Amino acid sequence: MNPKAIRLLNQQLIAQQFDDPADVVRYMGAIQAQDYRMMRWAVGMRTRKPSAKAFKRAFDRGEIVRLHLMRGTWQLVPAENYWSWIDLCAPKAIAVTKGWMHSNRITIPDEELMHIRDILAQTAADKGSATKEDFIRALEEKHIKMDDHRLSYHIRMAELSGFLCSGELLPMKATYALAADKVKPTTRTDHDETLIRFTLKYFQSRQPATLEDFVWWSGLNVSECRKGIALLGDTLHLERWKGRDFYLTDDCRTRGLRRGKFLLIPPYDEYLISYKSRDIVLPQEHRHRAHNNSGIFQPIIAHDGTICGNWAPYKDECQVRFFDNEFSVEDVAKAWQTYQDFNKSSNRSVD
């Protein structure tokens, strides 16, 4: 088994299978969206022809939705799974959020939570797409003053309750919409059916992966993750590699790898954040250059699946720093041009 090659293929980082950004998010199930600008490239680079304009179109139409969900962090999810994923993930995410609040000595009574949630929801409904500044003004009009930290918790809880989700995609600033207006209602499946779909989405797009990886990524309890795997039955099979048990699907992609491929990967990308153990693609001695212990992830370069350097997404010229002296900036010229073309596409029309 070549886990790096299999992950590149099944994460759609090479030999991509999709043209529509919304199809990528549907396939992945959820994509980390901590960085508001770079989440676009995280999706775009997984399409055949990366286009920032195509991403904005899918986002503004509500085909791709951004909210705090798994592990209490930002995620992109497909609209058709939005309500089901909330039903599955929100209870644990709410518990995590309340734990953070307790650590920060913030207490929000239920009465306050519901009152502020109603104000936020009404503001989002009135504005269509509301910014945090709009929320602050709406609260001030009702003589409510609140620091940014407390307001952020209120917004997060409103997201996890299915009241708020992403609004219009702006260049630099997040907006919020009323979820009932943005996301079409869907027939909600029962818990086990949702868990089956959620589990399958993870393993088909992140394989090979371990149980521990799935527990980390999903934010669910170990027992829930074990149940999801068990419910999939023969859809998954185990392969042992270097003393660890990995799950793969029977239709796992294994062909399509081209040697010598460089990838400019955004911070918080699923290529790393999908897994608890990242040593398969990230040499331990360079771990601190890719992410720290506080959960801050850096833009990284991969060569044939191995993380080998860092890059600067917001510079006019390609700036890279390789961990060793094996490569140079000329080696990533093609990847840099693809990224530049992606950004320029935001100024072009899309059919």
Description:
With 351 residues, the protein is α+β, with helices and mostly antiparallel strands. It has a domain at 3-182. The chain has helices at residues 3-10, 21-28, 38-44, 52-60, 82-103, 110-127, 132-141, 148-160, 179-182, 191-206, 211-218, 222-232, 270-273, 287-290, 333-344, and strands at residues 31-32, 64-68, 74-78, 164-166, 176-178, 236-241, 244-249, 262-265, 300-303, 306-311, 320-322. The protein has a 4-stranded antiparallel beta sheet with strand order 8-9-10-11. β6 and β7 (244-249) form a beta hairpin. α3 (38-44) packs across α4 (52-60) and α5 (82-103) packs antiparallel against α8 (148-160). The protein is globular.
Count of extended strands: 11
Q: Report the mean per-residue pLDDT as an integer.
A: 94
| Structural class by helix and strand composition | alpha+beta
Give the radius of gyration: 20 Å
Please write the string of helix (H) and strand (E) elements.
HHEHHEEHHHHEEHHHHEEEHHEEEH
What's the short story on this structure?
The chain has 351 residues and is α+β, with helices and mostly antiparallel strands.
